[in-house]
Amino acid sequence: MGTDAHTVIVKPNRILAIVVGCIALVTIVAAVVGANRSEPTFDPATPEGTVQGYLQAVFAGDDETAVSYLASDTECDADDLRRAMRNESVRVVLRDVEMVGDKAEVEVDVTYTSQGGPFDAYEWTENQSFDLVREGERWTLDGEPWPLYFCRRG
Fold first, then answer.
1. pLDDT value of position 99
2. Distance, CA of 117 to chain centre
3. 3-state class of 71 per DSSP?
4. What pairing do the DSSP bridges indicate for beta strands 138-141 and 121-135?
């Protein structure tokens, strides 16, 4: 009888070890897939593609290219972008796109992350909205799109 009792105890431990191993394997696979996924690429002829191109130029520090996405009647220029506050650790997620005729609005969530010392890592998210207008065959950003907040001449 002692052998039968030992067998009953060992089987649940072996099953538990297999379940824990499977969970660990799934977690590792999910982490690898998540880390290696590529950024979605939107058609540059769409409002979301226009915003994506603008933001890629802003994050790359290519202010002249970023300004090329702005509407022709903008008061903003590359100097305004150079003065804009840019955070090194920022993530942008597309939330919504609404189009009505020759106007569009693209909403994104901008998440800032900051890492200091121990217990000093935090992040915050804000919603940003990009207004776009169609100029000929292309969409352009109207107004003062993020990270611009104030463009002034004179």
1. 94
2. 25
3. coil
4. antiparallel
- The H-or-E segment that residue 29 falls in is helix 2-36
Token pair of 152, please?
A: 């002034």
Provide the token pair at 4: 């039968």
On the question of pLDDT at 27 being above 70, the answer is: no
- Under 8 Å between Cβ of 123 and 114: yes
Mean pLDDT of the chain: 82
Residue linked to tokens 């609005």: 105
Helix/strand/coil percentages in the chain, nearest 5: 40, 30, 30
pTM above 0.90, yes or no: no
**SS3 state of residue 124:** strand
Confidence of residue 85 (pLDDT cuts 50, 70, 90): confident
Look-up: residue for tokens 């520090």?
61
The residue-averaged pLDDT of 96-116 equals 91
Helix (H) or strand (E) holding 131: strand 121-135
> 49 Cβ partners below 8 Å, 6+ apart?
42, 43, 139
